Automatic annotation (TrEMBL):
It holds the Pfam family SBP_bac_3. One of its GO terms (molecular function) is ectoine binding. The keyword Membrane does not apply. It comes from Streptomyces mutabilis. This is Amino acid ABC transporter substrate-binding protein. Keywords: Signal. SUPFAM superfamilies: Periplasmic binding protein-like II.
């Protein structure tokens, strides 16, 4: 994941947090934890979701991946895609369960929701804890910096060389990328999300905030103090690295994951996937044929 969407002006920070709080309460009151698995090989969650008519989605309030808009409605690339795929699987509706990004995998494991629909990056560490759909998008990184980029920060190597004060989000892949380039993990300022990252740059607490190209571009739109750098591929083990994001499922629910993948690949082949994601800023460049197996490390 990191980090995380029709494209209209995004919600204010206040309305976003209010929406998350309200819908978090709704999720808690409307239904308690998901029932434990039945022991059926591959899991029977899909059958149970069909019977109850609703799938609970773990989201992290991150534009453009999954968030509550200014009207209190669930949207974002992952929830909108989930609505289409679950409908095709015979599940009529989805319900958001907002949480912090760093709590998505623990929340899934403790059955607070059925699937993580937050545009989560697929990487080997996470693949030890959950199973992923194939990615529905690929993504580069970008930095939020002060207007004019006074330190000339273009990539992680620049951050280390110029001893910039560096921040990124809770649980973001960008933590590992900075460390890979020699930045001390203890020196990284970890903030909840890209809004907090923008605030940290604008206030001078840090020189740079790292996130996905889409989230950073979106959050600086109304800022007169900060800008976003050109997107770039982090260098990992000497090679440019492209991330891919997808949906996370509990390890025993392979039947649901596999059925989800079947519908996802149909949408890719027909071109409907791009149509669903395009309103949130995704382009043909973000479409991918990468697989979860590749991103998990084979």
């Amino acid at each position: 994941m990191s980090d995380q969407r029709t494209r209209t002006a995004g919600p204010t920070r206040r309305s976003l947090l209010a929406g998350v709080a309200a819908l978090g309460a709704l999720g808690a009151a409307g239904c308690s934890r998901v029932a434990a698995g039945s022991g059926v090989e591959g899991g029977d969650l899909l059958d149970r979701l069909k019977a109850q008519g609703v799938a609970r989605l773990g989201i992290a309030g991150e534009i453009p991946f999954g968030y509550i808009d200014k009207n209190g409605e669930l949207t974002g690339e992952a929830p909108e895609l989930a609505k289409v795929i679950f409908k095709r699987l015979g599940v009529d509706r989805v319900q958001p369960v907002p949480t912090e990004f760093g709590s998505l995998i623990p929340g899934l494991a403790s059955q607070q929701f059925d699937v993580v629909a937050a545009g989560m990056y697929i990487n080997p560490d996470r693949c030890q804890q959950v199973i992923f759909s194939d990615p529905d998008y690929q993504m580069l990184d970008a930095f939020i910096v002060r207007k004019g980029n006074p330190m000339g920060l273009r990539d992680y190597e620049d951050v280390v060389k110029k001893k910039a004060k560096f921040a990124t989000g809770t649980g973001y892949a960008e933590i590992a990328y900075a460390v890979e380039h020699g930045y001390k993990e203890d020196d990284i300022l970890i903030v909840p999300d890209q809004v907090a990252g923008l605030n940290a740059v604008e206030s001078g607490r840090v020189d740079v905030f790292a996130g996905t190209a889409l989230t950073t571009r979106e959050v600086v739109k109304k800022s007169d103090k900060a800008e976003v750098t050109e997107a770039f591929a982090p260098i990992i083990d000497g090679e440019p690295h492209v991330d891919g994001g997808g949906f996370a499922f509990r390890p025993n629910e392979t039947n649901l994951r596999d059925a989800f993948n079947v519908e996802l690949h149909k949408l890719k082949k027909s071109g409907e996937l791009l149509r669903i994601l395009k309103p949130f800023g995704f382009t043909e460049n973000e479409m991918t044929d990468l697989t979860a197996k590749e991103l998990c490390g084979g």
